[in-house]
Description:
The structure holds two protein chains of two kinds.
Chain A: H1 2-14, E1 19-28, E2 38-41, E3 56-61, E4 64-66, E5 69-73, E6 77-82, E7 88-91, E8 101-105, E9 110-114, E10 119-124, E11 132-138, E12 143-145, E13 151-158, E14 160-167, E15 174-180, E16 183-185, E17 188-190
Chain B: H1 5-22, H2 32-38, E1 46-48, E2 51-52, H3 54-61, E3 79-80, E4 98-99, E5 105-119, E6 125-145, E7 149-158, E8 162-172, E9 183-189, H4 192-198, E10 214-215, E11 224-225, E12 238-247, E13 251-258, E14 284-293, E15 315-327, E16 333-336, E17 342-362, E18 365-382, E19 388-389, E20 394-407, E21 410-420, E22 429-441, E23 444-453, E24 460-469
Amino acid sequence: MRIPIVTGLALVLTLPAVAGEIHGTVACKGVRDSAGAVVYVDAIPGKTFPAPQEHQKINQQNLVFDPHVLPVLAGTTVDFLNSDAVQHNVFSPDACAEKFNLGTWPKGQTRSYTFKKDCVATLLCKVHPEMEAFVVAVPTPYFAVTKADGSYKIADVPDGAYTLKVWHPKLKAATKPVTVAGSTDVGFEIAR
Amino acid sequence: MSHARPIARCLTLAMVSFAVVLGAHRPASAIPAFARKYQTSCQTCHVVFPKLNPFGEAFRLNGYRMPAETEEEIKETPVSLGSEAYKKTWPSMVYPSTIPGHVPLAINIKMADVYASQTDGTNRTITRNDFQFPQEVNLFAAGTFGDTFGYLAELTFENGAGVSIERAQLTANSLFGAGHAVNFKVGMFAPDLEDGFHEMWLMTNNGIDSLFTYNPIGPNGGTGTAEEGGGISLPENVKAIEFYGVAKHRLFYTLGVTDGLGQVSTDPGSNPQSTGNDVHSAKDWYARVDYKFGGMGLDGDTTGKTLPPENWRESSVRVGLLGYYGTGNDVVFHEFDDLGNPTFDVIDRRYVRAGLYASWLWRDLNVFGVYLHGKDDLTTTDLTTAAVTQPNPTYDAWFVQADYVIRPPFQVSLRYEDVAPGDPSAASIRVGNANFTYLIVANMKLMLEYQRDLHESKNYNAAAVLRFAF
């Protein structure tokens, strides 16, 4: 019996701080549903996160950006795939994304852009002005996008005290201090 | 030079009867295109269409948008003509807009059985019973473009008058940010000069429209009303540019310029007095200011108010001043005798109209009215003697109307109208109207109306009107 006890003790000692989760609901007032709000943990003093090697992807299909809202850790590269038979373009009018313009390309091709710093980047297509999407580059890897009912869940957040923020394409942003201890419920209500 | 009194009287009565039988036309403002857009009932905005309740008036003044409109309230998803974020790229790219998800059309149909009795100069009584099926059909297109712009167009088929463009307007709302403080309108429309009470009229078949069809043209000034195209009175539908808005929730103002000479037609076919040459380039000006005490704000604001759940009710008083000014130096109207021979030429060099408006709403009762004073500076040339005179006749017109909601489907209305013409030899016009309305369903109503010349009991008409909108 000693061996399992020692093994278990060793496992506990080698784990990082207990990973909790932040979950809750963002009630979005004045819009059709509560989807598309980004909830994220703001910069943690003294802590930085390396840019992920894995690329994220936004698909342009049926004249729509998919997903409409994509949160990423700052430094992430996003690949834009054209899956339509028509040409698409991607550009951003926002300075925090260097007002990039990736040009125009046909079906099956991908062009990429690295979101180097914290930024809410609007993505537009000059060929189809009604197309719109957002890449929200945030300073921590702790983020989530709300579902239509406003629910969200950010997993694997170490216990501790943080600043939780919510951003929405049409509604005013909001901020709340939060202390994570295991499973933590945080709700927001945002409006125009 | 003056007309004999019997002739003037006879002319007046004939004009009244003419207007009555045809049904004085007004914009038919029940617009189901908005019911579709918001997926809401007619009763949201109307007591009985077209009469607006306080919310409906706020909706109208807000450029046909909900007060503090949210995306959730628009049930019919609009088609994007550019994403919201394109605003950031202007002027490098085109500013974004939207169009309705479906073709925003709506139709009003009005049918009437009009029984009219009138006496002529020989005291002979003539009666007519007309099936006016339809009396009028209106095709509407109405909606909004994006956050700022709105449009409204109305094509009307009127029994006996054919098809005409009744309204075609483009509005821009909240031009300088503050909610509905400065709005702009251009096109052909009923100016907000009188639209505030225009939209309140429950009676839509009878009425001499003393405010809109008074004709000041005549050797001694006007003898009364005339059918469309005859007078220079308040404009009912004109080509105009207008700024209007609501300040501090309760102060309404409007300032506009119209194409001039009110609604005088220069087409000799519809206006025998016309020269047929539209050489008139001067414009007319109008202004109005209102204040509403109590009840819902004119922009729909309800802060600090507890309003009854019955949305046609509130306790409020709205009062206003209105004015209209124009010049017609370059338009000559020809007067003819009974045999069709020219007798006088008349120029209305300058015309001024000033009025008071008031509306009192108390529970189920709404009493409202307008008093209008007009002054015309005429130049009259007697074609027989070549004598030129410059009379300055004045006239006074007013009406008061009481509408009462018995129960939401049943309403009654009484109106009294009075015109004291500019020609002192002409008799005044006094007309009484009574109406009973049954709102069969939300978008269909039956009205029984009665109108009588209060000078002559044999001059009257009764009408049964069926009107529906979809």
